User: Which sequence fits this backbone?
């Protein structure tokens, strides 16, 4: 499911929405990445850069899932705003009639 997110879309999400260019231990904990998994990927002990995230299937899946969840939340919020705006326009139209 979530790994259907393209690498470019996921990369943009990591940089633009999460502010990740290099994932450090503190950020990894924030995103519930297992410490052992983090240590396994962070071989140079200098943090995990975006390309390393995209190359590791487990991390890719985890962040792709996060991307899908955030996208779905945004779509739901947009749909609710659109309904509210339509209701306002309808109310204005009825009050003028």
Assistant:
């Amino acid at each position: 499911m979530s790994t259907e997110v393209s690498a470019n879309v996921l990369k943009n999400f990591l940089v633009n929405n999460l502010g990740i260019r290099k994932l450090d231990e503190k950020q990894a904990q924030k995103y519930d990445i297992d410490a052992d998994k983090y240590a396994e990927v962070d071989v140079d002990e200098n943090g995990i850069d975006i390309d390393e995230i995209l190359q590791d299937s487990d991390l890719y899946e985890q962040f792709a899932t996060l991307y899908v969840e955030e996208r779905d939340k945004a779509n739901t919020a947009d749909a609710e705003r659109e309904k509210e705006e339509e209701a306002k326009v309808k109310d204005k139209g009825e009050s003028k009639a």
